[in-house]
Structure formats: C-alpha cells, structure tokens
Amino acid sequence: MDRAELQRYMDTLLEVGRFKDYCPNGLQVEGRSEIRRIICGVTACQALLDEAVARQADAVLVHHGYFWKGEDGRITGMRRQRLSTLIKHDINLFAYHLPLDAHPELGNNARLAEVLDCVPEGRFGEQDLGWLGSLPHPLPLGEFARHVGQRVGRGPLVLGDEARLVRRVAWCSGGAQSFFEQAIAQGVDCYVSGEVSEQTTHLARESGVAYLAMGHHASERYGVQALGRHLAEQFGLEVSFVEIPNPV
C-alpha cells in the first residue's frame, strides 16, 4: 500500500484535525513509500524498533511516538539512536496519541469498555476523552479490581473501600488521573485509569469514590491492536502487535 494513501486513511479515520495534542499525529518519520508489513506497539522504544528491523517491517504504528511538546529537541543520545534505526532501515513511524484514545470504536477507551465489561453510557472531560458507564451487575470494589487484573494481566493499585459496591464507572486510559475530580462530579462509584498521583489517594478517601490505577502501558495496549486489525482487514496488510513489557 502506498504510504501517503495509508496516512490519509488513518488521519481521516481518527479525525486527527479536531484534536489539540502534545505531539504531532500521523506520519512522524518517513520511510519507504510501499508498505506491506506493519509492527504495532504501545511506544516507539528502541526494543520495538529492533523488533521491526528483525521482522523486516515497512512501518511501525504506535500510540506513543516522538516530538512531545516541551521536550529537548536536540537529536542526541537515545533520540539519535532511535531515529538512526528508522532512517537506516527506511522504516516509517506512524503515531496517534489522543485521536487513538478517543475513537468511538477503535480507541483505547472504547476497547477498555469491552475488556473490562463496562457498558458505555456517555463521555466527559476535555475533548470528551473520559468515558462513563456501568457494570452489567454491581460488584464489590475488591471483586471488580480482581476482574480488572485478570483481564489486563496485572493487578491494579486499589484506592478505596474494597467492600463498597461498584455500579457506575468512569474510565480514561493512560495518565488521566487529572480527570478524577470530573469523574467524581459525574456521580460514579469508581474511576479507572492508567496512572495515579499522590493527591489521588486523598481525593479517593475524602470523596468516597474508588480509584483503580491499572498501569499506563496496560491501559493503552488495546487501541493500537484494534487499529492494526482494522488495517489488516481493510487492506490485506501484514500487521503484528509486539508486547514490550512495561510495569508502569
């Protein structure tokens, strides 16, 4: 498939133009013009790039790419090594951040609803990134936390009374702990995200709303996998997801 055609398709599908983001979305590093094999991952780390080289990939597709707002823009050290790997092997790098969090079918939060067995009922927060819903059947917090752990393969950090019944849930993948107060205002029993801050403990205790931190990486595996499957089905491309373990 032609690189420019693939870029246009993904940019349109994910509506990149409507998002204010911390990084450029879409094609970040240009490689060869013909794409047949794509490697997907959460973050464009060196380990993922090395796997792409080993598998003779034409493109890498990730949620966390490069060129973040406010970071040092000099091409030295780790940044030089990553870019050198892509350029030397003529590999394209596509990255979609907030557009991949928010997509109503392929996005991280849409996929988390399915993974966690939550029934979506609405959106909240900046750029409608947060999701609201309910459990099919109310569960004590401790049991819900174990369910989350079983589904994502790691136990979440639990802030709250494990005996409290959870009916309504809000969630937002990644580092979305800043949405916690907005989730509390929505009248939920529990908020699920990737990361947690020191102040989050006090908000959970004083509001009575539980908080589950399932890990940034663990919460953002699913969108890029769904997008990769979609591309494989739509265009007959060879697409593989590579899990680079990350405890955070």
Question: What do you see in this structure?
Answer:
- The chain is of the alpha/beta class.
- The chain has two domains: 3-98, NIF3 (NGG1p interacting factor 3)-like (Udp-n-acetylmuramoylalanyl-d-glutamate--2,6- Diaminopimelate Ligase, Chain: A, domain 1); 103-219, 3-Layer(aba) Sandwich (Udp-n-acetylmuramoylalanyl-d-glutamate--2,6- Diaminopimelate Ligase, Chain: A, domain 1).
- It contains ten helices and eleven strands.
- The strands form two sheets. The protein has a six-stranded mixed β-sheet with strand order 5-6-8-9-10-7.
- α2 packs parallel to α3 and α5 crosses α10 (222-235).
- The longest helix has 14 residues, at 222-235.
- It is elongated, with a radius of gyration of 19 Å.
- The chain starts with a helix and ends in a 7-residue tail after the last strand.
Based on the model shown, name its key terms:
single chain, 248 residues, alpha/beta, Udp-n-acetylmuramoylalanyl-d-glutamate--2,6- Diaminopimelate Ligase, Chain: A, domain 1, 2 domains, six-stranded mixed sheet, five-stranded mixed sheet, 10 helices, 25% strand
Task: Write the topology of this structure.
Blueprint: H1 3-13, E1 26-29, E2 37-43, H2 46-54, E3 59-64, H3 77-88, E4 92-95, H4 98-102, H5 108-115, E5 119-124, E6 130-140, H6 141-152, E7 157-159, E8 165-172, H7 180-185, E9 190-193, H8 198-207, E10 210-213, H9 216-219, H10 222-235, E11 238-241
Helix pairs in contact: 2-3, 5-10
